[in-house]
Specification:
It contains six helices and no strands. The chain is an all-alpha fold and 209 residues long. Helix 1 crosses helix 2. The chain is globular, with a radius of gyration of 20 Å. The termini are far apart.
């Protein structure tokens, strides 16, 4: 939990500089401008994160409490274990879907705040939700592509990681290097997705003018 909270805080800090860089079309943003954008947007993005917490809590209550209670009653009437497993997996997938959608709302709220220079995080969150509702196909296609690339990177990494033995110093070093390379690839894919979000939002904004 502490690591997840620290990752969320770090994300709030660096998001401002990264989105500003994508907003400037990656035109060589100087380090001082990058850090200034990080410091400028950090307290606002922390507030945005706090605003999104009730949505995560609502998704948790809806799926992991109310839906779980209903499916537990349903399990009493299910005799096929495969059907029961499918129901459990469906519930988990539904929760992950809600979780990802709320995260996307916050992502597009950040993009809106920087692209439109909107200092109100509540208005930005509302605009992020409105944007997703207006462009569901484009948003979901971009997110599906990003998730697909993350899964592909994991599938390619697992056999590489299993290839190196852990009973020697060389194997440990090679496994560590492979793990770090995988993290770098994941970071690159995640930031490519963030750049795609900025491009998608700017393109929609240009079309609406």
């Amino acid at each position: 939990a502490a690591a997840a909270f620290l990752a969320a805080v770090m994300g709030c800090f660096f998001a401002g500089g990264l989105i500003q860089a994508y907003q400037d079309t990656l035109a060589g943003v100087p380090l001082d401008r990058f850090m200034t954008s990080c410091r400028r947007w950090f307290p606002r993005f922390v507030w945005l994160f706090l605003l999104s917490l009730p949505l995560y809590w609502l998704a948790h209550r809806l799926v992991n409490r109310h839906l779980t209670a209903w499916t537990d009653t349903l399990f009493e009437k299910v005799e096929d274990e495969r059907l029961g497993l499918a129901i459990s997996l469906g519930r988990a997938v539904l929760f992950l879907f809600f979780f990802d959608m709320i995260t996307l709302m916050a992502d597009y709220a950040r993009v809106h705040a920087i692209v439109r220079s909107d200092r109100s995080m509540l208005a930005s969150l509302t605009s992020g939700i409105r944007f997703m509702l207006k462009h569901p196909l484009e948003v979901c296609s971009l997110e599906a592509g990003a998730l697909g690339m993350q899964v592909l990177a994991l599938v390619l990494y697992l056999p590489v990681d299993a290839f190196f033995p852990r009973n020697s110093a060389g194997g440990l070093a090679a496994g560590l290097i492979a793990g770090q390379a995988y993290l770098v690839v994941r970071l690159f894919l995640r930031e490519s997705s963030r750049a795609g979000q900025v491009a998608l939002y700017r393109g929609a904004l240009k079309d609406s003018m």
